[in-house]
Amino acid sequence: MSAHIIDGKAFAASVRSDVAKDVQSLKQKHGITPGLAVVIVGEDPASQVYVRNKVKQTSEVGMNGFHFEYPADTQEEEVLQKVHELNNDPAVNGILVQLPLPDHMNETAIIEAISPEKDVDGFHVVNSGLLATGGKGLVPCTPLGCYLMLKDHLGDLSGKKAIVVGRSNIVGKPMAQLLLDASCTVTIAHSRTKDLPAEVAQADIVVAAVGRPEMIKGDWIKQDATVIDVGINRIPAPERGQGKHRLVGDVEYATASENAGAITPVPGGVGPMTIACLLKNTVTATYRQNDIKK
Ligand SMILES: Nc1nc(=O)c2c([nH]1)NC[C@@H]1CN(c3ccc(C(=O)N[C@@H](CCC(=O)O)C(=O)O)cc3)C=[N+]21
User: Fold this and answer.
1) Does residue 110 lie in a domain region?
2) Mutation to probe ligand 1, out of 274, 277, 279, 281 (largest number of atoms < 8 A from CB)
3) Could you confirm whether 54 is annotated as catalytic?
4) How far apart are CA 161 and CA 178, in angstroms?
5) Looking at the structure, do residues 50 and 110 belong to the same domain, yes or no?
6) Would you say residue 12 lies in a domain?
7) Is 294 a member of any domain?
8) R_g (Cα) of the chain, nearest Å
9) Are 223 and 204 spatial neighbours (Cβ–Cβ below 8 Å)?
10) pTM of the model
11) Residue 79 Cα, ligand 1 centroid: separation in angstroms?
12) Of the residues 6, 50, 127, which should be mutated to test ligand 1's pocket, given the most ligand atoms within 8 Å of the CB?
């Protein structure tokens, strides 16, 4: 049996079209245009596609985009100053500081400087605390996108066995919180997990967020499980010509598709949903900052 392919690209387009309607209504009824500010320090090649897509889609949904680029040797103080300025700017409803930051910067200090109400990445400790305690904060975009795809495909998630492979603050931990909130039985696996294949083999839902190309093998996947592949790894593809690359996920896609009931592709799965959820979070933040009920 071959798995159903969860089309993240199409789903993301429908999320963006809902966002565009909300933006229209904010403009017409309230005279407010949501604004998203993005701060980028240095040049991480892996982030380039992300930045390009984000810029394009921000304007497509009718929001204002503000972009600030700094060279890699910028002082931390200067970035903090910009964050404070954006916190106080009423035209800015969402702030995203692109990660990773250069090594000489304290990433945590910069994230915690963002006003939690404008933290559309959901990385601020106030937002992670709210997520962990069932409060109403902003939820990190990648896990939110994964969750929306799971809900769309499976409906009720309660009682399902889910495994999240990866324990980062950005994906693994918030993903596990969302699944727990949806009443899944959640395992968080990581580099020290003993017998990862056996753990994965138990799961009805597998979320792979390890950042290693095709590390999760297809024959570990339980029959009819739903597989969400968060990894976006660029690997050499000499078969496409000298110096060429291609994108693969953290899951061995071809073989996993034989066992899984459904699977997200790379590209065209989680990536586009991450950006759509960033725009969605910016609209959510705008509603809340202006005390408008949707
Ligand atoms: N503060 C912060 N928040 C982030 O959310 C964040 C970040 N920093 N730094 C960089 C990573 C990377 N990231 C991606 C999102 C979407 C795609 C995406 O849309 N990918 C296309 C790839 C298309 C292609 O390359 O052909 C896809 O998967 O289909 C990629 C990468 C968000 N990040």
Assistant:
1) yes
2) 274
3) yes
4) 13
5) yes
6) no
7) no
8) 19
9) no
10) 0.97
11) 22
12) 50
For residues 146 and 262, membership in a common domain is answered with yes
Amino acid at site 271: G
Which protein residue has the closest C-alpha to ligand 1 atom 2?
98
CB atoms within 10 A of CB 222: 19
Same domain, 169 and 79: no
CATH number of the domain to which 214 belongs:
3.40.50.720
- Residue 3 is given by DSSP the state P
Range of the domain at 60: 31-117
- Of the candidates 157, 76, 145, 61, the one whose C-alpha atom is nearest the C-alpha of residue 112 is 76
Last residue of a domain, one of 83, 117, 151: 117
Both 113 and 149 in a single domain? no
* 233 CA to centre of ligand 1 in angstroms: 11
The residue annotated as part of the active site, out of 22, 119, 121, 204, is 121
pLDDT in tens, the chain (294 residues): 699 999 999 999 999 999 999 999 999 999 999 999 999 999 876 677 778 788 899 999 999 999 999 999 999 999 999 999 999 999 999 999 999 999 999 999 999 999 999 999 999 999 999 999 999 999 999 999 999 999 999 999 999 999 999 999 999 999 999 999 999 999 999 999 999 999 999 999 999 999 999 999 999 999 999 999 999 999 999 999 999 999 999 999 999 999 999 999 999 999 999 999 999 999 999 999 999 998
Answer yes or no: do 163 and 200 share one domain. yes
Q: Binding site: what residues are annotated? A: 166-168, 232
- The domain tally of the chain equals 2
State the first-to-last Cα distance of the chain, in angstroms, to the nearest integer: 42
Which tokens hold the place of 41? 């320090």
Pocket-forming residues, ligand 1, beta carbon under 6 Å = 47, 49-50, 53, 96-99, 121, 141, 232, 247, 266-268, 271-272, 274-275
- Interval between CA 174 and ligand 1 midpoint (Å): 17
CATH at residue 76: 3.40.50.10860
